[in-house]
Each structure stands twice: as structure tokens, then as C-alpha cells.
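Form 7-S
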Amino acid sequence: MEAIVPGVVMPLADGLRRLTAPNPGMMTGPGTNSYIVGERELVVIDPGPDIEAHAAALQRLAGTQLAWILCTHTHRDHSPAAAALKRVTGARVAGRPAPVDGRQDESFAPDRVLEDGDVVSLDGMTLRAVHTPGHASNHLCYLWEERKLLFTGDHIMQGSTVVISPPDGDMAVYLRSLERLLEMDIGALAPGHGHLIPTPHDEVRRLVAHRLKREQKVLHAVSSVAGGTLEELVAIAYDDAPLRLHGVAQRSLHAHLLKLRDEGKVKEEAGRWHVAA
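Output:
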């Protein structure tokens, strides 16, 4: 599998190209994937961060053929370039408004707010919105029905797990959104970070199993350190993760703890966590 190079257009199939933004990092992997979909009328899915060179490259690739800009969610590495791309192409923007949690692209202003099951149709292509909250409450995946290809944004990343950051991120909701995909007729996944995933249901099952295994480690950590803080618990629950990632891992740890609290398995007192009696 060849490396993903930001700024290099990668043809993936007829009517499908990937352009990865130059924002590689701990949270984004090789960078945020923008997909150019279609042949005569075009759609850009996830225009990416507010990086002028990336927006300009998308404009060159899509030009006057661009009809729609679809955003999976409003984290700042996925939607901010929508405004610039709309300004120069006149394309319509669709997605869901940004929640207020301090981590969102508050400038996002969709021309069309999409609900679960809504369809964007053009040029013989059907893109169906699938509401998949959990990583973000406004997260949508987009199913290209004719190809059975699901654009997953940050619901599923290739080569890594996504961070679930309360309060907008919700671990229980995320797991339910993953399990929903097992009921869908999907042939492949086009993630917001990384390569295409050709075995979608296997990947979903792997992710669910991984999260449930992590949940058991979280329970073990709470039972091992009575009254532990997030800082104390992360060292046990994420002992398989590099120390440099523990700060970010605390977000997902918190999401696991909130799920376990709601299930009556743990309790929190003044920022310290205990096994529920």
C-alpha cells in the first residue's frame, strides 16, 4: 500500500479521486482526505481545513463542474475550506450545523441541513446521508448507493481509532452508530484519514471489539486505583499507548467512564472515579 502524499491527487476509481490536505499530525494521520466524486457534475466530500493551497487545489480539480460540497462534520480539519470553495465555485454546501463545544468550525453555514436518510442526487449518482453521531453529534456518513461506498469522515479512520471527546462526543452513541453499519449493504469505506477499506463489516466488528476490550481495561483501572483521576487512570487503561498520546487518550477514557457511569458500573465524586457499589 503506497504512502498517502498530501497535495497529490490520487485516482481511486472511475469518478472518484482523493486529495489529502497538508495537515498531517497525531490526530489526522497523513492528513484529511477530501474526495472529488462524479464525472460531469461533481461533489467534494470534506473540503478540509482552512489551508489556502488545499482549497485552491480543490477548486482547480472541480472548477465549474462542482455542484455540492458535503461535510461529514464540523471539526476544524474537515469543514472550514467549504466557505472558500463555495465562494469561488458557487457550489451549495450541505451538512449539519456545528454544535457548541469549543472544538468546532463555527463558521460552517450549510445551504442545506441534512437529516438521516436525506439524499443528494445528481448526474446519475445518489449520495445518502447516514447520521452517525458519537465522534461528533452532527456527524454524517455518505453512502454512494450505486457503488455501495460509504464516506465515513471520522466515524471510521483507516489504521487508527478515533478520539471520542465529551461533551459532544459520546461513547455509547458511537458504538450504536458503528453497529448500525453492520445492517447496511456496504462494499467499501472511504475514510476521512487513510486508505480505502475494502472489508467494511470486518472493520466495524474490529472497532467494536477494540472499544469493548478498552472498556474492560478502564474498569480494571478504576478497580485498581480507587478514587483515581483521569491522569492516574489513563496510565493503566492506556498502558499500550505511547506517553505522548496520553493527554488525548484522556478524552476517550472520559467517554468510556461516562458510559460506564450511565450503566451504573462506576461513579464519579469530585473528579475521582470509583467502582459503583
